[in-house]
Amino acid sequence: MKTKNMGLISFISLYFFNIGQINPIAYTGNLDLNVEEINKTENSTTLRITKDTNVKNVRLPDGNWVSDTSFTYTINRNGDYDFVYNTIDGASKTLTVPINSLRNNYLITNNPNVLLNLKSEDMLSGMGFMKFRNEIGDWSPYEVYKTTKDWTLDSEEGLKTVFATFKDIAGNETSEVYDKIILDKTGPTINTFTINNGQPYTKVRNVTLNVSALDNYSKVSKLLISNDNINWTEVNYQNNIPWVLTENSSNKTVYIKAVDSLGNIGIAKTASIYLDEILPTGSISINNGDSLTNSRNVKLQISFRDVHSGIKRATIIEKDTVYNIPNVPKTTNPVTMELPWTLKMGSTGQVTLEVEDNAGNVYRTNSKVISIATLEVAQFRLLDVVNPAKPNFTPITWPFPAQEMKSGANISFDINYSLELDGNTTSIVNGEYCVEVIGENYHKIIKTNYDNKIANGFSSTIKIPDDAPKGSKIYLSSKLTATLTNNSETFKNEAFFPNVNEKALIGVISGNIKEDIIFNEIQ
Questions:
Q1: If you average pLDDT over residues 281-309, what whole number do you get?
Q2: 13, 255, 358, 470: which sits with the fewest CB atoms below 10 Å from its CB?
Q3: pLDDT tens across 406-451, in order?
Q4: Nearest to 114 by CA among 176, 38, 47, 181
Q5: Radius of gyration, alpha carbons of the chain
Q6: Which of 275, 297, 328 is the last residue of a domain?
């Protein structure tokens, strides 16, 4: 009777493999033999064989016969293992146990030339020959049995299976056995690669490379990084890697390759970021650099530029006021503009320009300090109105209703002002007034300087024209002029009552003072 002799085959790898646990299974054949896996690892499994009372003996896959009621047998390679047994009544039967789950964590190699480790035993005539084949391909010719064999895998990447069959000297041939190994010839793929999480600009050379890579068969082990695609630095694979860019502000490209545990190097991938180490430039002035202003409402002249990453933000700062200029042009060309601005309270003003580029560099510059001289009318009063019918006049402050007045009689008035100056500015203030008497077919103007200078103001007394007809209206307006000097610069500041190009109605003619005097004398 022809018997089968089970052979063993294995591979050697220069790199790594992992060992894992596999759940045991049980096999039963014809209720005569019970085969159970009792101890299984990645590379071997131990079977417990229990025979029924009608079984005389059992021939193991290695050719040995046993007659014990229960015994064990260890297998360390995948294949079909035949247990041949004889029954008491003289029948010969076979239970085939398939073992195909060993070495699921396969060895990996990047070289198709591998070494097969072999083991096969024959207890009778002895081992004679062996032959092999790849999963795709024909069997090799039989050759003399040895414990090792140099073998070439299929060239295509992936999981490879090598089959072996052994034959003893008597010509008995084993079932084929096999083992698997992964052929990995290409490097890992860089899935994502950014610098500083994809930010377009940086103001410092020290950046972080953000990397993820994957290898089809093994694992990513190393990274090769370069600033010039010529000189490479090797680092252990990780997702975030500190890196230093080359000097000088410009667009920077970083090259990266992934290396797997076998030494396969993947295709380079690049990421870019703009290095901008240069501060923006800018200037700001108030009223074109004047030393003095007679109004808090001024004009700001502003210019700024960034020649590398471009301007992100331009901000005007004065004391607690922060104003971001809207719609700043996104350009590296010079930007100039003029903006209206109202200076804060105080006798001097200064503004700051803060410019930030897209890389985060910030430049600050201050305007020249400007002195603020504000001249304002504080009040206008009608001090006295000569009217014999109403001899006791009480001074009144504008605004007030038109008062009853007499032609040919006197009126007195004054005006007060407020002038805010810093310690470096001197001033001379003058005042003039204009009185208009307007009636039917009558219009007369009295225009001259104030007569008297008082504290922070002026006063004057005038006579209403004798011929002003009854019902005429009396209007008054004033203009104050401050001549200001600061650092040898001189200009004028003006204030008006009631307002520029306006006049105040202060009285109405009810008669002539001569008529009132005659009437009083007659009485």
A1: 94
A2: 470
A3: 999 999 999 999 988 877 788 899 999 999 999 999 999 999 999 9
A4: 181
A5: 55
A6: 275
Same domain, 147 and 193: no
Identify the three-state secondary structure at position 336. Answer: strand
Residues 47 and 119 in one domain: no
Q: Which of 215, 241, 275 is the last residue in one of the domains?
A: 275
What confidence category does residue 97 fall into, taking pLDDT thresholds of 50, 70 and 90? Answer: confident
Domain containing residue 121: 107-183
Q: Are 309 and 276 in contact (CB under 8 A)?
A: yes
CATH number at residue 212: 2.60.40.10
pLDDT digit string, tens, across residues 64-82: 899 999 999 988 767 778 8
Lowest-confidence pick of 58-72, 363-377, 396-410, 482-496: 482-496
Question: HEC states along 252-278?
Answer: EEEEEEEEECCCCECCCEEEEEEECCC
- pLDDT for the residue 14: 25
- The residue whose two tokens read 């085939």 is 96
Distances (CA, A) of 494 to 246, 370, 435, 436, 454: 62, 18, 19, 21, 18
CA distance 13 to 23: 26
The sign of the torsion formed by the CA atoms of 302, 307, 308, 309 equals positive
Query: How much of the chain exceeds pLDDT 90, in percent?
Result: 64
Check which CATH number belongs to the domain holding 77 and give it: 2.60.40
On the CB side of 241, CA atoms within 13 Å amount to 24
Residues 307 and 254 in one domain: no
* Tally of CB atoms within 10 A around 142: 15
pLDDT band at 5 (very low <50, low <70, confident <90, very high): very low
Which residues have CB under 8 Å from 454's CB, separation 6+? 414, 416
pTM for the model: 0.62
Report the alpha-carbon distance of residue 390 to residue 387 in Å, rounded. 5
Using CA atoms, how far apart are residues 228 and 236, in angstroms rounded to an integer?
Answer: 20
CB 187, CB 266: distance < 8 Å: yes
